[in-house]
Each structure stands twice: as structure tokens, then as C-alpha cells.
Design brief:
181 residues, Metal Binding Protein, Guanine Nucleotide Exchange Factor, Chain A, 3-stranded antiparallel beta sheet, 3 helices, globular
Length: 181
């Protein structure tokens, strides 16, 4: 019984000492971004707002990292001139000038429209390491990038059609019906 009391007392003393130590460090920690490794995105919506903005397939792909069945997307074998926009943020992300037939079953591009249109996020799901391609304004899932593409980049940005909105050359960029941001 005495051993249990001593152990519990010792743990209580350690706990109090830890709290006192942390409180003493509060001034040092204020101003430090504890979430600095988590990317910050310009567009921040609740899941309900995303569900209202996107159709069910878009929501599954863009917000839940789903993948369309290969060869099922509307832009897989689609080669009109124009610009591909993110269905999440409506920012331009890829041009038809860099689109090619990778024979993978998904729309593929060898380069984004600009360096800041997308971000790459390490993806270790499904027992492998890949690089997820996300919309730089919302962090929404677009697809993955692989190192088996054509010159000049050698990259294959393999995307989901549901994540994209195509606007023909000279067309009007898309706008949200209800602009939440």
C-alpha cells in the first residue's frame, strides 16, 4: 500500500512540475506557429460548405482523395485547346498545351500552368510513397505526379477529370454561382 501511495505521489509531483515548466515557457512559445508543418490555404471552407459547392463526385475526389475509375473521366481522351481549372478554387492549373495521352486512363499533363498553381504533398497511403497534386488555393486533391512523363519535364501529372473544369480557348473563366470566397 505504501508503495502505491509513493508511486502516485511521485507521478503527481512529476505532473505538477511539467505544468509549471510549460507555464514558464509560455512566453517563449507565444508567436511560434505550432502548426508550421501544416500547409495554409487561402480558401478555407467547412465540409458542409464544400458539399454545397461541389457535386458528389467532385466532393469525393477533391475533398476525400477518391480516384475515378480509369478511362471513365470526361477529359481522358479529350484534346481541345483551352485551360483546365480546379473545380475547387476555379484557378487555372493546367493548359491543353501540356496535355498528352499517357494511356493511363486519366487526363495527364507534363507541366502545370504556373509553379504556384499546385502544391505537391507527400502521400504514404496504400503502402507506397507518392506525391499528391493539390490545388494551391484550397489544398484539394487533384491527382498524383509520377516521373514517367515526356520531355521536357519527364513528369506525368495524372489527374481526375472530376477535379477539373475545362474552358475552351477564348472562353470565359468559370465562376461560382454562390461565391463563398
Amino acid at each position: 500500500m505504501k508503495t502505491k501511495i509513493i508511486l502516485i505521489s511521485g507521478l503527481a509531483i512529476l505532473l505538477v512540475a511539467s505544468v509549471i515548466t510549460l507555464r514558464g515557457q509560455e512566453d517563449e512559445l507565444s508567436g511560434v506557429d505550432l502548426d508550421q508543418d501544416k500547409p495554409k490555404y487561402e480558401i478555407q471552407l467547412t465540409e458542409e460548405e464544400w458539399k454545397a459547392r461541389l457535386n458528389p463526385l467532385q466532393y469525393a475526389v477533391l475533398r476525400q482523395q477518391a480516384t475515378e475509375t480509369m478511362f471513365s473521366g470526361q477529359y481522358d481522351k479529350f484534346y481541345k485547346k483551352g485551360t483546365y481549372y480546379s473545380a475547387a478554387s476555379l484557378q487555372p492549373i493546367f493548359s491543353s498545351d501540356t496535355k498528352y495521352d499517357s494511356k493511363s486512363g486519366w487526363p495527364s499533363f507534363w507541366d502545370p500552368i504556373s509553379d504556384d498553381a499546385i502544391r505537391l504533398v507527400k502521400d504514404t497511403s496504400e503502402g507506397m510513397v507518392r506525391w499528391e497534386v493539390v490545388d494551391s488555393k484550397s489544398g484539394s486533391h487533384l491527382g498524383h505526379v509520377f516521373e514517367d512523363g515526356p520531355a521536357p519535364t519527364g513528369l506525368r501529372y495524372c489527374l481526375n477529370s472530376a477535379a477539373l473544369i475545362f474552358v475552351p480557348e477564348g472562353g470565359t473563366p468559370p465562376k461560382f454561382k454562390k461565391d463563398n470566397n
